[in-house]
Fold these 2 entries.
Entry 1:
Amino acid sequence: MNLKCLIGFFLCAFVLMGCWDQQELADISLVTGIALDKGKKAKFDLTVEVINSKELTTKTQAGNAPSLAFTLEGNTVSELAQKMNVGVSKRLIYSHMRTLVIDEKVAREGILDFLDFLDRNREIRGDFNLLVSRGVKAADVLKITYPFQKASTLKLHTQLQTFVQNWGGDPNVRLDDVIKTWTSPGREPVLEAVKVKGIPEKGGSVDNMKKVAPDAIVVADSLALFKKDKLKGFLSLEDIRNFLMTQNKLVHTAVSIPCAKNKFVGIRIFGSNTNTKVRMMKNRAVVHLKVDDEAYIDGMQCKDDLEQISTYMKIERLTEKEIKHQLAATIQKVQKKYQADIFGFGEVLHHQDYPSYKRVKKNWNNYFKDAHVNIDVNVRIKRTGIRTKSLTSVGEH
């Protein structure tokens, strides 16, 4: 009986004991984003965005700023991240961070120096967005208010998730993906690039989030292309979509296909599958991309009869031709201008023919530059929305 009581006592003790590392909510502040710029006297300017949680709910909001941005200058991110209480009252918690914005100037010099801290820190999770700021300081991106997700980093997180699902304008890269790219053979990293449209100086005011047309807004701008850990240049939003298609990561997108002079068919792709094969032939890399897309007609400006099978076949061929042209243009641009294999063709060769890759891996980007890429696109149009005839055709009767 005494043994049973003793066991019961210890079980109750384990169930009722509190967390050894608990933090009272009143004593902490959540960091949702950080920005890294070049310092004037030291290596970095580190800016943190700290959430003002009372302004994020309708019951407690009072019309004040939704977040606080504070900047410190120093030589290591690890020291600066723990030194923020110079100006911030509560202990900062980084586990809920959504966005890291890197200034273009910092990115061109190399980003491994500070990513090591983020990857090593046990408190910071690896599922946040990494972005490059273009034409504006990274800190300014954190200061732009927004009517809905009022804090800039919360807005950006939702915006990019939606963008990649609806159209494919974000490479959907997180810290874990960047680290994996650096530790994998035959692939160079990419990040989303953003800029501030409007007047950045006015974007940080509370008034900015009360206007129908804000004075400043953060927009997804382009794809930042790296070689090793240094930024080399930028590609367009259309190139991001094409990049995702080569990676078999395109969820949905919309493509405008020319069908007559200054007339277009809107094609909505809702299913895309890409298979990649790479081999070495006569000391030259040969890449074969096989793309299978399912789509429907989302808009029709031409007068073709959509009740005829031949019309669908015609539009399918036009769509295949256009997608093939766009994919080829993106790949050739990266080959000739940057010589950086962001598509991971070397990684595919490493998996499919390791002996050949082992022979060329030290100079793989040179082989990538001269690689011959075959693209085979197959499009199947499944339906035309809720209408068969176009309004152009109906208006003629």
Entry 2:
Amino acid sequence: MIVIRELNKPNAKAVAELHAAAINKGFLAKLGIRFLRQLYLGIADDPESKVWIAIKDEKVLGFCAYSRNVTGMYSRVLRSRFFHLCLASFPAVFNPLIIKEVLDTLRYPTKQNTKALPKTEILSIAVNSSTRGEGLGKMLLDKAIEQAAKDGEPAIKVLAGAKLDVANRFYTSYGFQKSTEIIQHGEPLNVYVKNISA
């Protein structure tokens, strides 16, 4: 039986490994598993954010990271885990191309603010390749929608690479509608928004 629960420290490495395997074209994966582990621990500790994991027989099969306020989350995680994140990203953090992408990531909240998008966001979601097509992604997405409703948010957004057909189909099939497009790390991203019923 699959159980959905909040991330705890012992499962953080498994989430980082799943991110690196399933979201391997993204910038964050370039910083390595140690960095991803620290990042997800930081998101899980943030008062306006959550990380849920899907577990079966003590194995992490999927996860979903959510934040009620992405701008605030970025600044709080950076303040609280700056040393850990820097240490975990060594030596990649000294690569000029990586530094450029880090700065672009830090500018992301400003990009979304200029387009009047919801602050609430599904930061990332991934499932083990062996479980795809079994509805696990939808179960995790449901948790984020439920949390946004509990937080009193009118809408939630999620970003998907414009070239990632499977991800784009997944969000539109769930009722997300494309709102706009932004460029992040030189790549176009579709921004999807879903209104949340009271």
